[in-house]
Amino acid sequence: MKIHPTAIIDPKAELHESVEVGPFCIIEKDVKIGEGTVIESHVKILSGTRIGKFNKLSSGGSYGGLGQDLAFKPETKTYLEIGDHNHMRENVIFHRATVEGKATTIGSHNYLMGNVHIAHDVIVGDHNIMVQNTMLAGHVVIGDKVFISGSVGVHQFVRVSDYAMLAGLTKVVKDVPPYATVDGHPGAVVSLNVVGMKRAGISADVRLAIKRVYKIIYHSGLNTKQALTELKKDTNPAPEVQKIIEFFESSKRGVVDHRFVSGGSDAE
């Protein structure tokens, strides 16, 4: 185990023998860190944090701090759990959960750039990219293969579904449906995330079906309930279409509106 002599590691922390710890790091008790993880300088990892295999934690990060909730009692036993093969860049801040026995959870293969803030009780899936200064408030849920641009703020309890893209400086106060690009203050759907869908190997036929679904939901003159009823007349929808229907049906905050953009940005 490569541990810099200036690092302070509690003897009750559990580190795999292959973990590397850089200068001036602090690792508290009740921390577990898996195989192949590299921790650069000035990183603080607090009690209740679980970090998986082959992660890279760049300098200045803080992991597992107390949730920023005035009602939270510090003695409450909660966790921060991070999966495998993530790269966390400089000065990120992740807080542990506020509900007894629960965890703020980050999946695997995520790339989170500098100053990203993951608040208490957040759930992040896999293969996501978050650009500089992304801010996720408490209880936010991020799906898989989401791209969040710089300085985006996501309101507490919002869900952002798979393959969504959030444009830079966007304010997100309602749920973001799958395959959509959202921009503005507050955020609204401005197009489909065509690039993301193509990279994911989603066929042209399925992309066309997704486009049709959103036209019915947003532009048919039907309210959301009526639009979903119309869509469910198809008894054998593509899985991607079913995902959209289920997302709208399960939303508690409501789903972001659509904004018309000149030039037809929904076109492929």
UniProtKB/TrEMBL annotation:
The keyword Lipid biosynthesis applies. GO terms for molecular function: acyl-[acyl-carrier-protein]-UDP-N-acetylglucosamine O-acyltransferase activity. It comes from the Bacteria. GO terms for biological process: lipid A biosynthetic process. Residues 175-256 form the UDP N-acetylglucosamine O-acyltransferase C-terminal domain. Keywords: Acyltransferase, Lipid A biosynthesis, Lipid biosynthesis, Lipid metabolism, Transferase. Transmembrane segments: none annotated. The keyword Lipid biosynthesis applies. One of its GO terms (cellular component) is membrane. Its EC number is 2.3.1.129. Pfam families: Acetyltransf_11, Hexapep. This is Acyl-[acyl-carrier-protein]-UDP-N-acetylglucosamine O-acyltransferase. It comes from Leptospira vanthielii serovar Holland str. Waz Holland = ATCC 700522. The lineage of its organism: Bacteria, Pseudomonadati, Spirochaetota, Spirochaetia, Leptospirales. The gene is lpxA.
